Amino acid sequence: MAAVRTLAPGLPPGRLEQEFTEHAPLLTAAEAAAEANRCLYCHDAPCTAACPTKIDVPRFIGKIATGNLAGSARTILEANLLGYSCARVCPVEVLCVGACVYNDWAQRPIAIGRLQRFATEGVIGSGRTVLAAKPRRKGRVALVGGGPASLACAGTLALEGVEAVVYERARWGGGLNTAGIAPYKMPAADALREVAFIESLGVRLETGVDVGEDLPVERLFADFDAIFLGIGLGGDSRLRVPGEEGPGVVGATALIERVKHDPTLRFAPSTRAVVVGGGNTAIDAARELAKLGASVTIVYRRRREQMPGYDHEMRQALDEGVHLLLERAPVVVVRRDRQLVALRVARAEDGRPVAGTETEVPADLVVVSIGQARLASFVARFPGVELDGRSRIVVDPATGRTGNPRVYAGGDAVNGGKEVVNAVADGQTAARAMLAAIGAAPAQGA
After folding, report:
1. How many other C-beta atoms are found inside a 10 Å radius of the C-beta of residue 386?
2. 275 near 282, Cβ under 8 Å?
3. Is CATH 3.40.50.11260 the classification given to domain 249-368?
4. C-beta of residue 41 within 8 angstroms of C-beta of residue 49
5. Rounded CA separation 116/118 (Å)
6. What's 165-208 look like in SS3?
7. Could you tell me the sign of the dihedral formed by the alpha carbons of 127, 129, 135, 138, in that order?
8. What is the C-alpha to C-alpha distance for residues 237 and 244, in angstroms, rounded to an integer?
9. Which residue, 324, 326, 335, 329, is CA-closest to 358?
10. Mind listing the pLDDT tens digit of every residue in the chain (446 residues)?
């Protein structure tokens, strides 16, 4: 195989994300013990059933209560190799915590996510061994994209002794965990600690490698037994309205990445920001800007109850001073002397602008969060891999296998943009199918 370059630079100092405080800080040992001892250790626990990776929640919490943190971390990581980041970024309010039986009694549910972070914090990036890989056996798998789906897949393969090589185009591994998670939930440095943990299982991560350009797809088919596509959704979609081209209009995921990585990025406290969109990424971008002192308005083309973002996240945004302008659609980015001054919006019916109803929202910055562009041209390089009508890779949900028996896929490229935990579940499902296909039986209980 042609030589590829591996980049492992440290994050530069002075990044804006370092100014944020965690919204759910690490529990102290006393707090964790007290919370763990509140758990009822339910039989057929609904919290476990609500977890896409089926972490045995009562079991790991019980081990915290008895002081067995290594055992607790092992319980989590055996079910979900990215249990550390999932503890911090999962919408637990609608998953495990939302299913806690305490909710039925109008009592505070168990803080499952915070306990999960407590259990895994001492393992991730520490060099401690809680999962041991089997000796190397036959089989080589290439994974395209270094996000949660690929990392979970690669780690599962490596634990079974199968060689797993992850190719990531960006400077750092971790995908959206590193570049796209709001910094008050998890900073990039902690995401990279988890990447290092996955590498410690025997995974090889090659960053700065653009598959299809630096590394031909044909070489992957020649050198590997199977290929996993964990390529995400692509870049931010555009508004496609007059005035959009030019400074001051940015995509939400690109903005969040700069907040997390770019030490040169700064905002004046008087910045007037308009965020277009109603999903979780839009809300994250709005909350970040508000925490940095900007005046922020979210513009969404439908009603509040139709917003795809989680309601609890939107409520927190409103508490933090974000304004919400509903049933409005962008029609023009207004510039004067090439300087962005406003976003012109119109009243929207069924999401479409109504002529003659335009008003202007003052803006120094417009953040576009209306989805991400699919990677159809890239997927076309893989024979037999097909897309559905929404530009998602078509797979067998039981195995993650595409129409090409040697190519598997998972994560946002398949599900259209769900949670990190869903990507992890996809990656681990595909890994187990690959192990069976290449004759390497998975570990007992996997």
Report:
1. 14
2. yes
3. no
4. no
5. 5
6. EEEECCCCCCCHHHHCCCCCCCCHHHHHHHHHHHHHCCCEEEEC
7. negative
8. 12
9. 329
10. 333 334 445 899 999 999 999 999 999 999 999 999 999 999 999 999 999 999 999 999 999 999 999 999 999 999 999 999 999 999 999 999 999 999 999 999 999 999 999 999 989 877 788 999 999 998 999 999 999 999 999 999 999 999 999 999 999 999 999 999 999 999 999 999 999 999 999 999 999 999 999 999 999 999 999 999 999 998 889 999 999 999 999 999 999 999 999 999 999 989 999 999 999 999 999 999 999 999 999 999 999 999 999 999 999 999 999 999 999 999 999 999 889 999 999 999 999 999 999 999 999 999 999 988 878 889 999 999 999 998 999 999 999 999 999 999 999 999 999 999 999 999 999 999 999 999 876 544 44
As given in the structure block, the two tokens for residue 416 are 């259209």
**Common-topology check for domains 140-234+374-437 and 249-368:** yes
Contact criterion met (CB below 8 Å) for 427 and 150: yes
Chain centroid to Cα 1, Å, comes to 31
Rounded Cα–Cα distance for residues 358 and 405 (Å): 52
What is the rounded distance in angstroms from the CA atom of residue 221 to the CA atom of residue 207?
A: 20
* pTM of the predicted protein model: 0.93
DSSP H helices, 8-68, are 29-36, 46-50, 57-65
Token pair, residue 99, equals 């299913």
CA-CA-CA-CA torsion sign (226, 230, 233, 234): negative
Domain boundaries, the chain: 23-121, 140-234+374-437, 249-368
Fold of 140-234+374-437: FAD/NAD(P)-binding domain (3.50.50)
Q: Of 218, 143, 226, nearest to 401 (Cα)?
A: 226
CATH homologous superfamily for the domain 23-121: Alpha-helical ferredoxin (1.10.1060.10)
Pairing of strands 339-349, 359-362: antiparallel
